[in-house]
């Protein structure tokens, strides 16, 4: 049955979560933490109700709220910032306005995920707004933080902060040329977590995703690289190998992706070594299979550089010592259906009578970019 209380049309989503909840639990103990969390929920629900909002979803310490107006959403966020600003519970808040599809079971679309991503990039006590929300509430009282890219890999978004308090830089993607995918990441939660875990292991310097064409290696690889961004403070750089006709073009392709300047008379391998030595960086080499086996020889100088990690997608493994291979399975039926429905919703196709539609992800999954 359709929830008649959910606003439709232009909707402003507010996503909140508690910064460092695990650490706070350890510091306060279970009883005190439960009390603090209960008070936090009371405050969030009160601010939502007083400003015309609706609680869409909650899980753990995270809330997803929906407001029919952007000023109402901002007023609620301001209340939360003031009410919880001096307490032990430090709330991160993200606001984003869009036009999600409303179905019998809830919202469909990337807008609710966008609010979660914006909140996750902030810090305790910080309220962040997307440009679409800022345009509706006006810039008075807001600070322009410039453009940022988030782990959903959408195009760069200009972000604003409520109030002039000083916070550390946003936890967004930086130093990256990862492309903007045509569609949001859908399904594959288990595979994504596994690949992110592999990229986070310092002893693994070469990880290869393998599988037949069409299994989604590139999309999984892009999302995993974005999710692992904090592991690589010196940047994430994507190198498209498909256009390369011969393995000897690998190093020039990497130099171009990194926007390095070639030095006359100096081998490219030396240029790369000087630029990358000691850098905690991820080089994502996408679609390597047509360059094998000769690509292995071209990779040798790159692998000799201490610092960068190499992440490869290929239909076949590279057969290199130290290579960790992850076989990408085909989408299961449920994920394939969800992907189809999400893409249909993006095109304005309503599946009103389809009971399989999973349209309101749990707040915690939204934050993780499920």
Q: What would your notes on this structure say?
A:
The chain is an alpha/beta fold and 370 residues long. It folds into 2 domains: 11-170 and 349-368, 2-Layer Sandwich (Alpha-Beta Plaits); 189-327, 3-Layer(aba) Sandwich (Rossmann fold). It has helices spanning 21-28, 30-50, 70-84, 111-120, 131-137, 189-199, 217-227, 250-257, 268-276, 295-303, 333-346, 363-368, and strands at 11-18, 54-59, 62-67, 91-98, 101-103, 106-108, 127-130, 142-148, 157-162, 206-210, 236-240, 282-286, 309-314, 323-327. The strands form 3 sheets. Strands 2-3-1-4-7-9-8 form a 7-stranded mixed beta sheet. Strands 11-12-13-10-14 form a 5-stranded parallel beta sheet, sandwiched between helices. A hairpin with a 2-residue loop joins strand 5 (101-103) and strand 6 (106-108). Helix 2 (30-50) packs antiparallel against helix 3. The longest helix is centred in the N-terminal third of the chain and has 21 residues, at 30-50. The chain is elongated and about 65 Å long. The chain starts with 10 loop residues before the first strand and ends with a helix.
């Amino acid at each position: 049955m359709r929830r008649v209380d959910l606003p439709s049309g232009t909707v402003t989503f507010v996503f909140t979560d508690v910064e460092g909840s695990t650490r706070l639990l350890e510091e306060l103990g279970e009883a005190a933490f439960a009390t603090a969390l209960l008070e936090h929920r009371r405050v969030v629900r009160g601010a939502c109700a007083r400003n015309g909002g609706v609680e869409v979803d909650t899980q753990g310490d995270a809330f997803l709220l929906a407001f029919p107006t952007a000023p109402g959403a901002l007023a609620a966020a301001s209340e939360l910032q003031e009410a919880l600003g001096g307490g032990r519970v430090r709330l991160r808040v993200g606001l984003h306005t869009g036009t999600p599809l409303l179905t019998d079971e809830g919202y469909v679309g990337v807008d609710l995920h966008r609010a979660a991503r914006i909140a996750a990039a902030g810090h305790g006590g910080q309220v962040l707004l997307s440009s679409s929300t800022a345009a509706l509430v006006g810039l008075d009282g807001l600070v322009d933080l410039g453009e940022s890219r988030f782990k959903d890999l959408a195009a760069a978004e200009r972000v604003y902060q409520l109030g002039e308090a000083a916070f550390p830089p946003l936890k967004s993607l930086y130093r990256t040329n990862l492309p903007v995918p045509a569609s949001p990441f859908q399904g594959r939660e288990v595979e994504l977590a596994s690949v992110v875990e592999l990229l986070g292991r310092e002893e693994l310097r070469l990880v290869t995703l393998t599988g037949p064409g069409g299994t989604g290696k590139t999309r999984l690889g892009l999302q995993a690289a974005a999710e692992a961004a904090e592991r690589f403070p010196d940047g994430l750089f994507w190198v498209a190998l498909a256009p390369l006709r011969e393995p000897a073009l690998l190093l020039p392709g990497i130099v171009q992706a990194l926007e390095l300047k070639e030095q006359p008379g100096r081998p490219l391998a030396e240029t790369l070594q000087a630029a990358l030595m000691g850098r905690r960086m991820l080089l994502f080499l996408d679609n390597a299979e047509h360059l094998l086996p000769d690509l292995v020889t071209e990779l040798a100088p790159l692998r000799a550089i201490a610092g960068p990690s190499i992440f490869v997608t290929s239909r076949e493994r590279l057969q290199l010592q130290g290579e960790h291979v992850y076989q990408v399975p085909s989408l299961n039926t449920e994920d394939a259906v969800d992907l189809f429905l999400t893409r249909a919703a993006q095109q304005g196709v309503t599946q009103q009578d389809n009971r399989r539609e999973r349209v309101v992800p749990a707040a915690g999954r939204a934050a993780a970019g499920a």
